[in-house]
Amino acid sequence: MRPKELARLIEATPRDRDGVVRVERVVLDPRSAWPLRDNHRLRFERVDFGAPLFGSFWTRPTFRGCVFVDCDLDGVNATRTSFVDCAFERLSVGRRLFSAFSRCAFRACTFVDCTLASAELSECSFHDVAFTRCEIARTNFSRCALVDTTFTGALRTVNLTASTAIRVDLRGCAIVDSSLLDGPQLDLRLPDGPNNFVAYPRAFLAAVEALEPVLTPGNHDELRAVAAFVAGSTYGEIVDESLFARISADQRGLVLQRLFALRDLRA
Questions:
Q1: Is the pLDDT of residue 252 over 70?
Q2: Suppose 165 and one of 89, 146, 206, 236 were both cysteines; which one would form an S-S bond, judging by CB atoms 3.0 to 4.6 Å apart?
C-alpha cells in the first residue's frame, strides 16, 4: 500500500465506540514515508511497517494513544518521532532488517512480549516506559536518556553508550554479554541472583585465590583469564554463566557460587 492510500484509509475509517480507528493487515510499499504528522488513537494490527526491501522512513510524526499489535517494524528508520501513551504488543523490530531510531521520544509507553534485535537507538528518550517480557538483542542505546523505565525479559549484547539513566529497573531481566556499567550517570537496579549479578575486579581476583585448591588446573587458568579480562572495569562487570563458558560445566556452578558470595569486594 502506498503512503497516500494509507492516509486516505485512516481518514476514511470511522472511529469505533471508543474513538479508535482500526488499521489491519496492511503492508506498506518499499521505501515509503509515513504520511501523517499527527496520529491519534489508532490501532494497528498485523501491519508491516518495515517494507521488505529498503525499509520505511518516519520523520517527525507524533503518535498519541496508539496501539500496535503483532506489527513488524523491521527496517524502519525513524527520526524525531514521538510516541505518547502508546502500547506495543508482540512487536518485531530489527529481526530481519536493521532498524534505527534517532532523537525519538517515548513517554508513558508499554512494550509487552516484543522483540528488538539489530537496532540502533541514538539520542532517544524514554520516560515512564515499561518493557515487559521483551527480548532485546544486539541493540545499542547511544546517548539516550532513560527515566523511570522498567525492563523484564532478556538483554543480550545490549549497550548503553554515553547514556544516562534515572531509576531504571533491570532486576527482572536476564542480562548476557551486555555493557551497562560504563558511566557514573547510570542509576540502574540490576539483577542480583546467583546466575546474574554484578561483581567487581577485586571479587574476581579473590575468587581466583579462593578456588585454586578446588578447581582443575585448566579451569583455574580459565578463571584467571576472565579475572584479567575484567581487571580494567571501573564500575563492575555483569556476570552470567556465559562469562565462564570455557570452564567445564561440573565446576562452573562452583565458580558462580563463590564469585556471588564475593561480589561486593572492591579495591
A1: yes
A2: 146
